[in-house]
């Protein structure tokens, strides 16, 4: 299956991005609205058009980084938020990052990567988080596609990937998903062990 840089950039160029809500998803907005520490160093991997980064930036969070394989997606964010630091828009593969963060926001990326990389994602997230750092966000809790993203999964499956590296703070059905995703999303917060 082709999930290359060219594949993703073509999807954004042709606007073939059915997962893109055009706004911050309600569960993430509610989570962001209760964050107090504006100094947190935040990563949004596979951020795409990254309405989440734009929302956080407009709320005064300045240490937000977006990594994506699509230059078009990163350019779209910069066009909407011209003051967003260009140096914080990283055209790269998440698995090649060599930085550390306090918080990783998960919104569609985990379910967009090849499922064979999910254990690697958990390990990499742990490696690039500072002590007591969190991964927070949404995961699809549904059987979806097997040949192309988004790839679904289940809470039981996800716990298997994350428990070796993280303490599970919460992983429950999101109560405030948009209607088409209601009952099919898990909101989670996991904290790096150690």
Please explain how this structure is put together.
By secondary structure, this protein is α/β, with parallel strands linked by helices. It is built from 6 helices and 7 strands. A 7-stranded mixed beta sheet has the order 3-2-1-4-5-7-6, with helices on both faces. The longest helix is centred in the middle third of the chain and has 11 residues. The protein is globular. The model has no long low-confidence stretch (mean pLDDT 91).
The N- to C-terminal Cα distance equals 36 Å
Strand order of the largest sheet: 3-2-1-4-5-7-6
Query: What is the element string, with H for helices and E for strands?
Result: HHEHEHEEHEHEE
Provide the gyration radius in Å: 15 Å
List low-pLDDT spans: none
Total E-strand runs: 7
Strand content: 15-25%
The main sheet comes to: 7 strands, mixed
Helix content: 25-40%
Specify the structural class: alpha/beta
Shape designation: globular
Count of separate DSSP helical elements = 6
Overall average pLDDT = 91
């Amino acid at each position: 299956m082709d999930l290359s840089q060219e594949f993703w950039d073509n999807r954004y160029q042709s606007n073939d991005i059915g997962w893109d809500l055009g706004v911050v998803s309600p569960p993430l907005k509610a989570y962001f609205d209760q964050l107090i520490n504006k100094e947190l160093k935040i990563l949004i991997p596979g951020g795409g058009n990254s309405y989440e980064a734009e929302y956080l930036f407009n709320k005064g969070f300045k240490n937000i980084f977006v990594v994506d394989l699509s230059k078009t997606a990163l350019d779209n964010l910069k066009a909407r938020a011209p003051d967003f630091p260009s140096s914080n828009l990283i055209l790269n593969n998440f698995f090649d990052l060599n930085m550390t963060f306090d918080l990783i926001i998960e919104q569609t990326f985990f379910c967009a990567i090849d499922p064979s990389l999910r254990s690697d994602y958990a390990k990499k997230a742990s490696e690039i988080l500072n002590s007591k750092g969190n991964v927070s966000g949404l995961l699809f809790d549904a059987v979806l596609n097997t040949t192309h993203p988004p790839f679904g999964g289940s809470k039981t499956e996800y716990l298997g990937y994350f428990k070796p590296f993280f303490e599970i703070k919460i992983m429950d059905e999101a109560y405030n998903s948009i209607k088409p995703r209601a009952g099919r999303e898990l909101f989670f917060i996991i904290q790096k062990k150690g």
